[in-house]
What does this fold into?
Amino acid sequence: MRFKSLKLVLSILVIGFAVWFGTKWTSEAETTDTPGSANDPVVTKSYIDKQVAELVKAELAKQGGGVDDKKLQEMFDAFREEMAQSGGSSSKVEVVTVPVGKRLVAKDGAEFIVRAGKAMAYSSDANGISDLTDGVDIKSGKPVPNNHFILFPRGGRGVTAQVGQKAALTVLVRGEYEMQVQQ
It folds into this structure.
């Protein structure tokens, strides 16, 4: 009986010591540093943005490269006048009919969407045309799906009617292009 009570007392002491040690050990692991202090540097995006903006302003002021409102307005007016003279053709969308036996060849940066007819890709080199709708490269001679956004980063590529097609193609075009006779 005495052995059982001694065993019980020792168990309680061991458990009590373990609990006391666990709480003491975790409380010492906690720090008293405040967030954002030199000991605990927390940096937010807004702080970085503010600091970078101040540095850029200071550097521009040192270099004398700052643009005042008057100069900025003059640059904007010159750009607007240049766009008006060129007709702003790059932002217009044209509906172009491509007769059978001809091909529609894009200039640099043009965009096409084949709306009607069965089109085929044309390229003067080994590269194809970029179908941004499906994210694929369409090689020369392969069909171009209707209603897909086609981008021509370089000119010299385009679309033509598929072999056996009797009707003309209808293509939406943004940018510069030319109509060529198919050989």
The first strand starts at residue 93 and ends at 98. The chain has a mean pLDDT of 79. Helices lie at 2-29, 45-63, 69-86. The radius of gyration is 36 Å.
